[in-house]
Specification:
By secondary structure, this protein is mostly helical. It has helices at residues 2-44, 50-126; strands at residues 135-140, 156-160. It contains 2 helices and 2 strands. The protein is rod-shaped, with a radius of gyration of 53 Å.
Length: 191
């Protein structure tokens, strides 16, 4: 489009020059017509030669030819300008159509992606397990991704962080007299 715009600018300069030339040639033609009429009038009254009248006629014809050629060049230049402007308009319309088609395709793709993202979000929300309270996971159900489970199956076993721990310990009968219910206890576990 830039090359076409430069071509239009160059043609408009040619057009301007041709219009100025046309004004000058029109004046020159009018002068040639007046000169011819005066020379013919002088030749008819035998005050001027027929050769001068013929030379004036030749000058008028040459001025008419030059004027006609300038008009033709101006008309051609005008047609070229219109043609380039039409070409620019056609290219612009084509680009707008292509842009609209691309935009339509991109909107459709964006809608498809949004729909897929929505499905993924819904699926993710169904697969998230949330413990009812803070705790420590002590066991996970056997199996792996894709394992089918029923509602009654435990997926994980969680010991709440704030729950009291109960331990069942065995004491020697000789130690029974040294402990009472509610006494603080320290447990040592061998790993």
């Amino acid at each position: 489009e830039a090359a076409q715009s430069r071509a239009i600018a160059a043609l408009q300069q040619v057009q301007s020059n041709l219009q100025a030339e046309l004004v000058a040639l029109t004046d020159q033609h009018q002068i040639a017509v007046d000169l011819e009429q005066r020379r013919l009038a002088l030749a008819e009254r035998k005050l001027g030669s027929e050769l001068d009248a013929m030379a004036a006629r030749s000058s008028r014809l040459a001025a008419e030819i030059a004027l006609s050629a300038a008009r033709t060049r101006l008309a051609d230049t005008n047609r070229q300008i219109v043609s380039l402007k039409d070409e620019i308009a056609v290219n612009k319309a084509r680009r707008q159509r292509e842009t609209a088609e691309t935009l339509s395709d991109l909107r459709l793709r964006a809608d498809q992606i949004a729909e897929a993202l929505g499905r993924a979000d819904r699926l993710a929300s169904l697969s998230v397990l949330v413990a009812p309270r803070d705790g420590v996971v002590v066991s996970v159900a056997p199996g792996g991704v894709g394992t089918v489970m029923t509602e009654a199956d435990a997926v994980v076993t969680v010991v709440p962080s704030d729950a009291a721990l109960l331990a069942e310990v065995t004491l020697d009968s000789s130690d029974l007299g040294q402990v009472a219910v509610g006494d603080p206890v320290r447990l040592k576990v061998d790993a």
